[in-house]
Design a protein that fits this description.
Layout lengths: L1 E7 L5 E12 L2 E13 L2 H11 L6 H26 L8 E12 L3 E3 L2 E3 L2 E5 L2 H8 L3 E3 L2 H6 L9 H8 L6 E6 L2 E7 L9 E7 L2 H10 L11 H4 L5 H7 L15 H4 L1 H14 L3 H24 L7 E5 L6 H10 L4 E4 L10 H14 L7 H4 L9 E3 L5
Parallel strand pairs: 1-4, 4-8, 9-12, 12-13
Antiparallel strand pairs: 1-2, 2-3, 4-7, 5-6, 8-14, 9-10, 10-11
Length: about 400
């Protein structure tokens, strides 16, 4: 089957589309990556997504309209991707769409004496995608895992295991997107020994601080230029490394609820009060991302599993300061980019949802309970039939 995966992450900068040709079934599943396409969100759509995802004022009407509007954006991205690849969309057998997360709380919490149940919400109406493309679409994967007692994340480990398992080398797949997450694959491990979790912030805090520092003219720190021009503020870094989330035992997930706009606004307020330069604050946040990752590995992974390779994907893989810090803190690991395995870092999450959709279409379990904390394996995703041809 030719399967097209669609992904919009926590940075909400746009939609990644990836094409894969998939056949067979585990353990003899054949997988071939074919192409990647990125479609940027307009400033207006991104503003609405970030405001809603960060808990800003909204209404059921706005969320309903945004759900359908984003469905149209995902459909347009799929059509544009096929046009670039010169493949008629009628030759796409299946679409797997992650959608856009606007809320995610993977576990129940008690706040002010009241219990808040676990829940997650991804929007980007799959009925719109299926109708406008004509292609059967599977979407809304995370709720099934939460219903089965899991965190609803991370889901990419299903792909990580397929791509990176090795009989003699222990490996960690690190994705530095808006949030940073790791998949731990011990040498020769069966699926039930894989574990994964979100280490904490990825690019999310840095991106927000760059927008503040550049007054909205830039969305991210290209080449870490702003961070490299600053100095680390040790007082601020020490405060950041005391974040309670970093000490929580896995399985655990994070998002804008922990490291979103409210978190960034507190950093801006601290910087203003202490007269810290924007460049210093961005550099400190960049180093914090790297140190929170290495702290998680030293705290939860390396004492338990012998690891040889750290395979890095996501936007953070293009940040030279983050990568240099990881190399300095993990001298015994071979750090390699994900593209060595044929899938470029920017395409990996979209590819993962192509694979998850393929397995769901065939009625096979597509979560890893050892990664999400679910009570059992389950088939994630809701199917919307394409137009009759």
């Amino acid at each position: 089957m030719r399967v097209l995966g669609l992904m919009s992450g926590t940075s909400a900068d746009g939609i990644d589309a990836a094409l894969a040709e998939i056949s067979g079934a585990p353990p003899r599943l054949s997988f071939h990556y074919k192409g990647h396409f990125h479609s940027r969100f307009s400033a207006g759509i991104r503003e609405k997504v970030l405001r809603v995802a960060n808990g800003g004022g909204t209404s059921t009407e706005e969320i309903s309209r945004l759900n359908f509007e984003l469905g149209g954006e995902f459909a347009r991205a799929a059509i544009a991707a096929c046009r670039q690849w010169r493949i008629p969309i009628s030759q796409i057998a299946l679409i797997g769409s992650h959608g856009q997360t606007i809320f995610h709380q993977g576990g129940a919490e008690f706040v002010g004496g009241k219990r808040r149940i676990a829940s997650t919400l991804q929007i980007g109406e799959p009925c719109i995608i299926a109708e406008r493309t004509g292609v059967t679409t599977i979407a809304d994967f995370r709720p099934t895992d939460i219903a089965a007692g899991g965190q609803g994340a991370p889901l990419v480990p299903f792909l990580d295991y397929l791509l990176y398992r090795h009989a003699r080398r222990g490996r960690i797949a690190l994705n530095i997107g808006g949030i940073a997450n790791v998949t731990i694959i011990p040498a020769g491990a069966p699926p039930q020994e894989i574990f994964a979790f979100d280490t904490g912030p990825g690019n999310m805090i840095v991106d927000a601080l760059v927008e503040w520092a550049k007054r909205g003219r830039e969305r991210f720190d290209r080449g870490a230029r702003l961070a490299i021009s600053g100095r680390v503020n040790l007082e601020l870094l020490t405060r950041l490394m005391r974040e309670p989330y970093l000490r929580r035992d896995p399985p655990k997930t994070a998002g804008r609820e922990q490291f979103g706009s409210a978190f960034a606004e507190r950093l801006v307020a601290w910087a203003t009060k202490h007269r810290a330069s924007p460049a210093d604050v961005v550099r400190t946040a960049t180093i914090f991302t790297s140190l929170s990752i290495t702290d998680a590995l030293h705290r939860f992974v390396l004492p338990r599993v012998r690891i040889h390779d750290l395979i890095v994907s996501g936007g953070g893989a293009n940040n030279p300061l983050m990568m240099a810090q990881l190399a300095a803190a993990l001298p015994d690991l071979r750090i390699v980019p994900a593209q060595e395995w044929g899938v470029p870092p920017e395409a990996k999450e979209a590819v993962a949802f192509a694979l998850l959709a393929y397995e769901a279409f065939h009625g096979r379990p597509n979560n890893l309970p050892s990664a999400t904390g679910a009570n059992h394996s389950t088939v994630m995703g809701k199917l919307v039939h394409g137009r009759l041809r």
